Amino acid sequence: MGSLDGNISIGGGQTQVTPTDMAGAYATFAADGIQRDSHFVAKLETADGEVLFDETTPAAKKGEQAFDPDPEENRQISRNVTESMLDVLPGSGLACPSEHSCAGKTGTHQYDQGDVDSEENSQAWMVGYSPQISAAAWVGTGGGEPIRDANGGPIYGSGLPGSIWEKFMTRYLEPLDPEEFSDLSSEQIFGPAQASVADDSSPVPEEPTEPSSSEESTSEESSSPESTTRPSRPNPSHGPPTKSESPTSASESDEEDGDGGWFGGPDEPADDVNGNGNGNGSSDG
């Protein structure tokens, strides 16, 4: 068995994936570990009613357990991944419509022409999901050139791609009844402490920590009792859209919604795009 490629990113690295691939992969987490193949067409019939292709049947929608043959263990593994990404959205200044639950991850593909310290990015993306839908947004030129916003700053996944993703998710989810991710008790969280995934916002200088005269502290605490071990994150600035290409792909988690599990959302065209970045893909997590 060959070595695994740790440099997987949208349109770059040794293993290239498309926004459709990413939306489909994250849909597995949205469906509590049930993997279903992505497809653009859910059902195809001839003029006289002969069914040539149908992914809306119960058998087609069943899917497969992705992580473990035991159903509950499979669910817990997937749910732990979701738990680790719940804070990425608020940490990146992104949100789903009120009362809808969402998780996701931003990422960038560094523009690298031999300068490992380059602050330029050639591609950026945001992939996230709710229990009903998974979507991916990608921004790049298709030629591996540096991408910048209207203010001349480098584009990160939490910026323009995040804004595109947020707009799509808002339009898709607002008409739907909110759904929660499945329950996960403290005993089911893997590891001694569940650390959340960091976002890829533009780096800012860290403020010096003021020493306490009364006690020593080894970790920052937030106002939320559920996030005492999670690092704080800066809110990114969202620049106006650039002329960079920015396709959005989505994949329904297809749990019990009866929509056939097709990839896409209402009034939202979906494109599969392969870029040609020259740097290292990173989820910055």
Strand-helix topology:
Elements: E1 8-10, E2 15-17, H1 19-30, E3 34-35, E4 43-45, E5 51-54, H2 58-61, E6 64-65, H3 71-85, H4 88-91, E7 103-110, E8 121-129, E9 133-140, H5 160-173, E10 248-252, E11 281-282
Parallel strand pairs: 1-2
Antiparallel strand pairs: 3-6, 4-5, 7-8, 7-11, 8-9, 9-10
Domain Penicillin-binding protein transpeptidase: 6-138
Biased composition (Low complexity): 210-232
Keywords: Glycosyltransferase, Transferase
Structure write-up:
This protein has 285 residues and is of the alpha+beta class. It has a single domain, classed as Beta-lactamase (3-Layer(aba) Sandwich). The protein is 17% helix and 17% strand. The chain is built from five helices and eleven strands, in the order ββαβββαβααβββαββ. It has helices spanning 19-30, 58-61, 71-85, 88-91, 160-173; strands at 8-10, 15-17, 34-35, 43-45, 51-54, 64-65, 103-110, 121-129, 133-140, 248-252, 281-282. The strands form four sheets. A five-stranded antiparallel sheet has the order 10-9-8-7-11. A two-stranded parallel sheet has the order 1-2. The longest helix has 15 residues, at 71-85. It is globular and about 55 Å long. Residues 204-244 and 254-281 have low confidence and may be disordered.
